[in-house]
Amino acid sequence: MIKHTDFQAAINLAQSARRNAAYRRRDAGDPRNPFRAKAGREQEFLEATQSARAYGLILKLLEKEAQRRAWAMTKPARDGIRRATGIFIRAGEIALATLGMAAAFTLLRLPAPAIQAAAIIGVSVALAWAISKK
Asked: What is the pTM of this model?
């Protein structure tokens, strides 16, 4: 694996090479029309244009690689958040499903202790089941 300093040095080198190619292109180009070469300097203008494009592509690839590495470094945190979210969502769904018993007991007008017991049992079962899944 390439060290970060080597990678950043490659990016810096590509930036400076692209900048130098752009300077050569500007020097060989017509001051009034930057898309044309001065008379007699067409070859130099063409080479500088091709170099600037090539270094631009190289720089784009290096920057994409840097972004990919940064994204890969956040993978453990993203996985942990995804797991925790899954546990909480599953626990909530199960709690809603099991609290349905407490709601049914409420509709049947059973005594309060039975409703509370059903709610506590439902939440406990939901939490245990959600934790045991992960």
From this structure: 0.54
